[in-house]
Structures are given as C-alpha cells and as structure tokens.
Amino acid sequence: MSVSDAMGWLDEKAAGQPAVEESVFDDAALVELLRSGDPNAPARFFDAYGRYVERLLVRVLGQDPDIEDLLHDVFAEALGNIDKLRDPARLKGWLTRMTVFIARGMIRRRRRQGWLSFVPDENLPDRPSPSTPPEASDLLKRVFSVLNRLRPNHRVAFSLRYIEGMTLPEAADASGVSLATFKRWLKASDQAFVNGARRTDQALYEELLETPRWGRVP
Description:
CATH superfamily: RNA polymerase sigma factor, region 2, helix turn helix motif
Order of helices and strands: HHHHHHHHHH
Shape: elongated
Number of helices: 10
Strand content: under 5%
Number of domains: 1
CATH class: Mainly Alpha
C-alpha cells in the first residue's frame, strides 16, 4: 500500500462514509436562525457541520485525544462570533478557516511546551480507525510520527493539500493566507517531510523516493 493510499484510511472512509458531507441546511437561513437566538439553532448548526469539522481536525492532527475538546472549541468560537460573519452564504469557508486556526494553535502550543520531547512514538495520537487495514495503520503511524515534528504552518499545508485533498486555492483560503504564501508553505512542507523521514524512518524515506510526489523533492 502506498503512503497516499494509507492517508485515505485516516477517518470515516474506513467505515464507508463519504469523504465530503454536504449540509442539508441552507447556510444563509442557518446563520439567520443562529443570530435570532433560536434555542434549537446551535444543535442544527452542529448537525450540519459537526462531522465535517471533526474530520478536518482529524486530517490535520491525526486521531488526537483532544479532538472532542477542539471540536467543542470550534463551535463555541463560531457561535460567539457568528455576528461577525459578513456573508452568511460563506458559512462553511468561514468555519473551515476557524477550524484550521484552532488546530494550528494546538500544534503551536504543543511545540512551545516541548510536548513531543516526552511522549514516546508509540503513544503519539495518530491511531486510525479500528477498521483501518493493518498495513495502512502502520503507514499512518509512521507518517504522523514525521508530521508531528513539522512546523505548524508546514504541517497544516501538508494536511490540507495531501490528506484532506483541498485544491491549492481552497487550502490557501482555509489557511487564511495568499495563494503564493501557501505554495511556499507547501514546498517547505514537502522538503521537511522527506528530510524528516530520511532522519527518522529510512524505510518510509525509501518508499517516498518511489512516489511521483515526493521522489523529486531535493
């Protein structure tokens, strides 16, 4: 199994769920409901986007023990700032940027605290779904062991582009930066990922050299 194929088993795909869920709610109407103070609106908001936000967090962070707390943080932040959303029709993009911002903040806090310096690799929060094939599970563990050491912006760029599968413009918008800046992040993430594998996992590094995507990275 290739590294790219293994990434497809990171979350709901393993259970036969669609990779992208479309909200059954009209975004503009949902925003209006949230702003009106309707007591049922927060639950409808979560029903519309809860799975999407959770999946995006998993794609950036892996199967992290703090996913549930971060999911709560995203919706609490969104509900507290819903009046600041200028275009209700762009609710999903706004929520995506907020999710990425919160995930990146978690990565930064852990780096500042030296979180990885005392967490053994076997305990890193990269566990895929129990239904993930063993071969994919092993590859994911090794991939996230390398990703956990990337700089926050580089890890976010890698995850949005290669794991979540966003287009370059979509990923740049989700990151809140220009397309040119995102491309620089992505190029740096490719180099850091390959170099990280070369330093810590020679077998993974050799697998990467055989791929069209990373085999040409200097």
